[in-house]
Amino acid sequence: MPALLFAAVLLFLFDYLMGYRKNHIVIDFDELYPDLDEHMTAVHERLEHEGKTVETNGYRSFIINGRSYLFTERTVNIGGVPVQRTILKPGKKQT
Q1: What is the pLDDT of residues 80-90, one digit of tens each?
Q2: CA 87, 89, 12 angle in degrees (round to 5)?
Q3: Organism's domain of life (predicted)?
Q4: What total of structural domains would you count in the chain?
Q5: Which of 5, 41, 67, 85 has the most C-beta neighbours closer than 10 Å?
Q6: Which pTM value belongs to this model?
Q7: Facing residues of 66 across strands?
């Protein structure tokens, strides 16, 4: 029973760290962007390509379809290949 509880906690923690939560936007890039400006430009272009209205709102911040999002990044291995994961977390609502 403790092993099952431990596995459940690990799964919850993994999901939390990888951005699988309500209202989060997760984007995976095959390219690695070591420069923050290039990475934010790539996120901006990808979201516009998906048909969203996007504005850059300062350091690590976007307004997407009228809602504020904060930019977080992680590099994860998927099948032994490094992938740059972008997680956009909802911020305060814009008025």
Answers
A1: 888 888 999 99
A2: 75
A3: Bacteria
A4: 1
A5: 85
A6: 0.73
A7: none
